[in-house]
Specification:
about 325 residues; alpha/beta; Peroxisomal Thiolase, Chain A, domain 1; 10-stranded mixed β-sheet; 9 helices
Length: about 325
């Protein structure tokens, strides 16, 4: 059993079909965040919807924890999961290059041809000088970023971590999936979900925020028994048994039938709930965790979140929400 890790802030951004500043993304959230970061400096320019969603989610996670920004210190690191959704921007860049040669190489778009650009932008704009990680593990990269951040906080390698996933699903991405025999029924859109993670108690016995709950355990599984291995290792990490779990939330980009069969064989009488935020890939698992934390406060026990991908991978997290007053 390892120590729980508190969630002291959560930032959630879901933008179906638009940009984070558009009406579909609740106008004013992003401009207000950028204005507060810029102060008297020129306005910050963001290039791509994944950048907008990730920066806004990071800002709101810190703001909800009561952290003043820009931070200006090494106390907070970043672990961000991204996936193939950003490849649409790469395709746009290389189309310009093929059409116009060197003159078509946009210096504004070029940084997004590398996967760590979004995490770097979060660190630069919010002045976070802690460790910075980008994970590119497909649909479960947001989950794996959380696992990495939990380990960093538990092992005192970082006082606090911003962790989660961000995605931007463009038409190029959906078309490419169809051509490879993996048609997706989702739509163009973007999203991000980031958590501010801190130790269960700071060295002073206090925290920067009241908190929204805590992670009790986390684990990954790979291969034929990926779901079983992830769930069992997660429970062991938390020091709990399956009969103490009454609710399971699932976020799957893999085989739903196999996932449900595996869970029904393990979870006995637990209620299984499907996450209502599909097709957001790297952000899907973190969003399912955020929903679990919001629901868990009214439930008597911890909530298990399980995610799968199309490559025989699974992730599991056990969370406990803060009980309402």
């Amino acid at each position: 059993m390892k120590a729980p890790v508190r969630v002291t802030g959560i930032g959630v951004v879901r933008v179906p079909g638009g940009r984070a500043g558009d009406p579909g993304g609740r106008p004013g959230r992003l401009p207000a965040a950028l204005a507060s970061l810029a102060g008297s400096a020129p306005p910050v320019r963001l290039v791509h919807p994944i950048e907008e969603a990730a920066v806004l989610a990071a800002y709101e996670a810190l703001a909800s924890a009561g952290v003043a920004m820009p931070v200006g210190g090494e106390d907070i690191g970043v672990a961000l999961g991204v996936e193939e959704g950003i490849d649409g921007l790469k395709a746009e860049y290389y189309r310009g290059l093929l059409k116009d040669g060197p003159l078509g190489a946009s210096p504004i778009v070029f940084p997004f041809t590398t996967p760590n650009t979004v995490a770097a932008r979060i660190s630069i704009l919010l002045d976070l000088r802690g460790e910075n990680f980008t994970l590119c593990g497909g649909s479960l990269s947001g989950a794996q970023a959380i696992g990495l951040a939990l380990a960093a906080v538990r092992e005192a390698r970082s006082r606090a971590m911003l962790a989660g996933g961000a995605t931007s699903v463009g038409r190029e991405f959906l078309d490419a999936l169809a051509r490879t025999g993996r048609p997706d029924e989702g739509q163009v859109g973007s999203g991000a979900c980031l958590f501010l993670l801190e130790p269960s108690r700071s060295s002073t016995g206090s925290s920067t925020g009241a908190g929204a709950g805590e992670f009790l355990g986390y684990a990954d599984g790979f291969g034929p028994e990926d779901i079983r291995d992830a769930v069992q290792a997660c429970l062991e990490d938390a020091g709990l048994s399956m009969d103490q779990v009454q609710t399971v939330r699932v976020a799957s980009a893999g085989d739903w039938r196999s996932l449900l069969e595996a869970l029904h064989g393990m979870t006995a009488g637990a209620t299984i709930v499907r996450s209502p935020a599909p097709h957001l890939y790297a952000a899907w698992f973190p969003l399912a965790v955020a929903e679990a934390l919001q629901a868990a406060g009214a439930l008597p026990g911890p909530v298990l979140v399980v995610g799968t991908d199309c490559l025989a991978g699974a992730s599991a997290a056990l969370v406990r929400g803060k009980a309402p007053r």
